[in-house]
Amino acid sequence: MSDLHCPTCGASKIRLAARKSLSDVLLSSLTIYPFRCQLCADRFRTFLGRRTPNPRRSFERVEVSFPVWFKSRRSPTSSGVGYEGLIDNLSIRGCRIRSTAPIRIGSRLELEFQYSDNSFPVTIEEAVVRSIVDGAIGLRFTKLHRSDERRIRHIVDVWLPELLPSRR
Known about the structure:
mainly beta; three-stranded antiparallel β-sheet; six-stranded antiparallel beta barrel; 2 helices; globular
């Protein structure tokens, strides 16, 4: 098990992916499960050799604390007003922002954050609001430049511990 790596990029930062298709469910009876690389997002199946519950999400969230600026995108009622918040977790596909901004589920946002004083801002061209709970806004990234995606992958790579499943 310790030699389990992503077949695409070779990273060992992988985790069990949610079983969604019928083939995933059927193969899980043979303990063949889907995995997702946390860096390149490749999804692959492999023999695990033991039963495991179906995980809720495919991407591990990294606990961070980055100031963020965001505004509504492509909305007819959008005034272009920007808001501030704090990113408190991040993955290569989304993040959670703490803010008191008046945002609704389904809204499309543009956001920008800086992860250090010496870094250029990372710009997410479009993110969709998936959830709002007690001032925590859950976002899924839908559009970003390749260079910003690489920078997010680098942040996740540095901050995320090795995620190999342990044998019990």
